[in-house]
Amino acid sequence: MVILGVILLVAGAVALVNMALTSNGSLDVHVLGWHLGILGPGRVLLLGAAIGCALTLGLVFVLAGLQRSRRRRRERERALKGTKAENERLAAQLEEQQARAEQADASDDDEAERVRVLPANEAAADDGVYPAEAGRGATSAGYTAPPPPPVRRT
Fold first, then answer.
1. Total domain count for the chain?
2. Partners of 39 in the beta sheet?
3. What b/e readout covers 98-137, taking b as 16+ CB neighbours within 10 angstroms?
4. What is the distance between the alpha carbons of residues 25 and 86, in angstroms, rounded to a whole number?
5. 38-90 pLDDT, tens digit each
6. Is position 116 within any domain?
């Protein structure tokens, strides 16, 4: 639209300048090699008004094209800004997850260092009994495994 508007503006300006330079009360009109005749002052006024309308239409086209390009640029910048904000939010979330994972790894390492190695006589005395069951006199020797599943013969 901008290009069409500029073409209309240039054509109108050329026509007006041509009319002004060759005007001596009447105007001999030639358009694209066609001789349209000699126009009197009233018709020259109407021709000037038509050229003014073409200039106005050209200006409207130029401004509409500029407004559309400005709106597209604003929408593109807005979308880019939203994308940047989303990327920053995701980066912060990723850093937080990595920090939690590192903290969990560090606590697992600390826990592994704090594990106490039992002497041989304590390990034998424990005999695999849970602490809650130790007070009731339970031993791991009293545990019996469930029977194996039956075998199907076909």
1. 1
2. 27
3. eeeeeeeeeeeeeeeeeeeeeeeeeeeeeeebeeeeeeee
4. 70
5. 777 777 777 778 888 888 888 898 899 899 999 999 999 988 888 888 899 99
6. no
